[in-house]
Amino acid sequence: MVTLFYLAGILAIIATLFAITRRHAVHALLYLIVSLLAIAIDFYTLGAPFVAALEVMIYAGAIMVLFVFVVMMLNVAEHAMEVERYSLHPKNWFGPALLALVLLAELVYSSLTSINTPAPVGVVGPKQVGTSLFGTFWIGVELASLLLMAGLIGAYHLGRQVMEKEGTKHAADTTAARLDISRDLIHAGAGRTDHAA
Amino acid sequence: MLNASGLAFIAAGSRWGQPDGQVMFLFILAMAAAEVAIGLAFVFLYHRKQSELDVDAASELRG
Amino acid sequence: MLRLLWLVAAIPFASAAMLALFGSKLSRRIVATLGAGSIGLSAAISILISIAFLSSPPPGNAYVQHVWTWMSTGGFQPEIAFYLDPVSLLMLLVITFVSFLIHLYSAEYMQDDEGYARFFAYMNLFVASMLVLILANNLLLLYLGWEGVGLCSFLLIGFWYQDPANVRAAAKAFIVTRFGDTAFAIGLFLLFTILGTLDIQELMHRAATQWTVGSGVAIAAAALLLGGACGKSAQLPLQTWLPDAMAGPTPTSALIHAATMVTAGVYLIARTHVLFTLAPQVQFAVAIIGAATMLLAAFSALAQRDIKRVLAYSTISQIGYMFLALGLGAWSAALFHFMTHAFFKALLFLAAGVVIHAVHEQDMFRMGGLRTELPLAFWSFVIGGCALAGLPLITAGFFSKDLILWQSWAGPNGSAWFWIAGMTGAMLTSLYTFRLILLTFYGPQQLHVKAHSGASVRLALVVLCFFSIVGGYVDTPPDFGGVPALSNFLNSVLPPLEVIHSHPITETITALSASTVFAIGLALAFLFYRSQRARVPEKGILQQLWFAGWGFDWIYERLLVRPFLWVARTIKSDPADALIRGLGDIAMLSNRALRATQTGRVRWYAAGLAMGTVAILAVAFFLR
Cβ A106–C607 below 8 Å, yes or no? Predict the structure, then answer.
């Protein structure tokens, strides 16, 4: 069980690394799905079969599929490969990598100085989860349903604007307005500095 | 990132034998779903306007 | 009759006000009548008052007329009150009389000028202020008159204000006298703080009883008053304004800068002579200043080209004589010289005005041979010049100058140095006077006479000639008639000078020496300036130094004017305000710096979030 845990963990790390370094968007998404599946195995070895199944079904099966659908539909993967090559240049990821290293250091430090001792892993079944969910965390369930409702309505509303044909006209108007606004901003700033001098 | 934090929750719940960790992960999952739905709708809209997905081009809020 | 005293000052004030308000709407005749007539009326009233005063003197030989209380605050209650005693009576008569003649003259002289009414308004205001000055009962009212004459001097020097040079000259006069006025004001503050009153008689009494001779306060007060007198009377070191003040019209120069305003300092010192006797060091300084100024100005007069500038330096020099007399304690002699000087200096200026008006030229070296065409001006210059130089026995100037010279030797403070300085000054006076006459009226005629003078001008000149001749007979020394009427008259106010050193130089020897130096000067002038080839302006180093008035203007320019202008220019950008503006600038700068963080790019903001999170976590973990 323990070796399975570490194996799945290493697999997840490698898959995620590949996911962030791929230039083709769909490749990156597929690697991310692999990573999520590996994490699901990790959940199972940690004695949480219920969320392992949920991970596969919802996260990898619904959310990531949605991602892949949109990327494929917009079909920008080929055009964006040059941009991606630029952003994989060391000078672009050096800073964030440094910060990530700091985080890693924090993680290692806190786990090494932890006063807690490891305990044997027990299985927490779906029945327990369900009882806790609809008993203690009842309000969370309601709030989550509200959240999902908001997400649904929001997505529907945003999608509705796109569907109507004034989408292109709206784009033209706002482009012109955007240019005017930017010019005003530049002039306003200049005027203010002249006055002060 | 969400997934990683969820893993931390599950591990914590497993260590103490409580279902709370898994419950937390459920909520994170629900939140991620809603977020992805709206986020992708934004991406869709953006693509309609710019016909490219470069987020650096969306700098109208530049002060 | 004495109750009419207030009218003497009030009539010119009223006339000035009327001319200021309505002058432009009135005809020339009415303006002239109003302007000259008001002074004439004042002169007539003065004569009546003096007859009343002399025939039946009021008790204590002084008359005080309260008009109203100026202000009443705490312990300070100055009044508008006029004080008439022999000294102020003498000044009153001289000022009103000479002013009247000059106003009569200028009624004709200024008739082509556009600012006719303005001129008379200013002149009347001046005479009114001067009368307030000499009749004032307390030092505050005297200071009012002092400032009033300073104002009118400024207005009249810059009368033709369209020319910026005239305005500069007026500003220079005002600013230089301001130094003196400030010293005077501080002296007033000091006197009031320590003695508690500004009423002149009361002040003198308290000072005499409370202060010891040579005490610090007496020296301070006297020195400050001396500063004021130096400013107004154009003595060292504040004499630089008077030559430039000749930019004003000639009647102004005659009235203000010859006969009346510049003698205000002399009057002040004579009035407060008690303070000066309480501070002998300051009194000695007065004598030194007088002697030095006398010589300096005489040398400068020798090298001038402009006819009016010669007379200006001559005025400075003659007032130096008066200061010398005051410094020696010869108070009456100083006032006697003031009286004769008023007559002949006004005469000289008015005659110079006739010459300038006739040939439209002020440079003597371009004139010449005018005595045939301008006989009245010529004889006026001869009579006035001889009075100035001190032609023995028949001119007024001789008697007054002789009295000063005699007392410079014979008095308690007298010394051989003062006597020699006085004699040298007399010789130089004679020299520059006859230089002026020879250059202007003898030799080949280079300019044509364009205009001749009318009745008013002639009358004024003739009357002044008369008084320049006979004016000296009011105080003749013992060896020449023995009627010191004026000194006796002034004795009740100004203590007479004791004669200490009678040997070896007696009165007679002084008189003879004075006559001799007069003759020497005359001879030297003939020697240098009679011949043809001497008609070129002098170019030597000494002459250039004297021409520039011993370089005082040059020194003041570098010492005072330029640093002041530099300071003004440096703080023109208002550095004290920079602190306040700096706050605004800091706000602007920080705004510009913070704007750089608002790139509008999503990834930049996301990076900001991430960095913030890392930082907070680090703080939470490592600083627990």
Answer: no
| Strands, E assignment, C33-93 | 63-69, 79-84
Q: Which residues of B touch A (CB under 8 A)?
A: 3, 6-7, 10-11, 13-23, 25-27, 29-38, 40-45, 47-49, 52-54, 60, 62-63
Q: Do B33 and A62 touch (CB under 8 A)?
A: yes
Q: If chain C, 624 residues long, is cut into consecutive pieces of 10 residues, what is the mean pLDDT of each piece?
A: 86 93 87 91 92 84 84 82 89 92 91 88 94 92 93 93 92 91 93 87 86 85 92 88 90 84 88 88 91 92 89 92 89 88 92 88 81 85 89 80 82 79 90 88 78 81 85 70 71 71 69 83 80 65 82 87 90 82 90 87 84 86 76
Rounded CA gap, B39 and A154, in Å?
10
Residue ranges in C196-306 assigned as alpha helix (H): 200-210, 216-233, 241-244, 250-254, 264-271, 273-277, 280-302
Segments making up each domain of chain A, as ranges: 1-124, 137-197
* Nearest of C62, C96, C6 to residue C339 by alpha carbon: C96
Could you tell me the pTM of the whole model? 0.70
Calculate what percentage of chain A has a pLDDT beyond 70: 81
Is there a contact between C92 and C6 (Cβ–Cβ < 8 Å)?
no
> Nearest-CA neighbor of C316 among C472, C429, C181, C427?
C429
Q: Is the Cα dihedral C151, C154, C160, C162 positive or negative?
A: negative
C294 vs A109: which has the higher pLDDT: C294
- Residue found by looking up tokens 């991602």 in the block: A67
Distance from CA of C618 to the nearest CA of A (A): 7
- C599: nearest CA partner in chain B: B62
Q: Are B61 and C598 within 8 A, CB to CB?
A: yes
Residue-by-residue DSSP string for C537-583: ---SHHHHHHHTGGGHHHHHIIIIIHHHHHHHHHGGG-HHHHHHHHH
Residue with the two structure tokens 């001319």: C19
Chain C nearest CA to B23, separation (Å): 25
Two structure tokens written together for C92: 């009153």
- Cα C176 to Cα C227: distance, rounded to the nearest angstrom: 11
Smallest Cβ–Cβ distance between C618 and the set A95, A106, A196 belongs to A106
Domain spanning A1-124, CATH class: mainly alpha
Would you tell me how many other CB atoms lie within 10 Å of the CB of residue C551? Answer: 12
Contact residues, chain B, for C600 at CB < 8 Å: 58-63
The confidence score (pLDDT) of residue A190 equals 44
**Beta strand C79-84 pairing with C63-69:** antiparallel
Whole-angstrom Cα distance, residue A112 to residue A102? 15
Fill in the DSSP letter of residue A56.
I
The single residue listed with the structure tokens 């004042």 is C42
Quick check: C46 and C96 in contact, CB under 8 A? yes
Q: Do A109 and C588 touch (CB under 8 A)?
A: no
Give me the residue from A132, A158, A174 closest to B42, CB to CB. A158
A39 CB neighbours in chain B (<8 A) are 3, 7
Chain A residues with beta carbon closer than 8 angstroms to that of B23: 129, 132-133, 136-137, 140
User: Which chain B residue has the Cα nearest residue C597?
Assistant: B63
For the segment C115-150, what is each residue's pLDDT rounded down to a tens digit? 889 999 999 999 999 999 999 988 999 999 999 999
Q: Is A137 in CB contact (< 8 Å) with chain B?
A: yes
Residue in this structure with the two tokens 């070296």, named with its chain if needed: C365
Residues of C engaging A, defined by a Cβ cutoff of 8 Å? 584-585, 588, 607, 610-611, 614, 617-618, 621-622
Sole residue written with tokens 């990530």? A100
What's the rounded Cα separation, in Å, for the pair C549 and C306? 13
pLDDT digits (tens, 9 = 90+) for A22-56: 888 899 999 999 999 999 999 999 989 999 999 99
Radius of gyration of chain C from its Cα atoms, rounded to whole angstroms:
30
Q: How far apart are CA C110 and CA C123, in angstroms?
A: 12
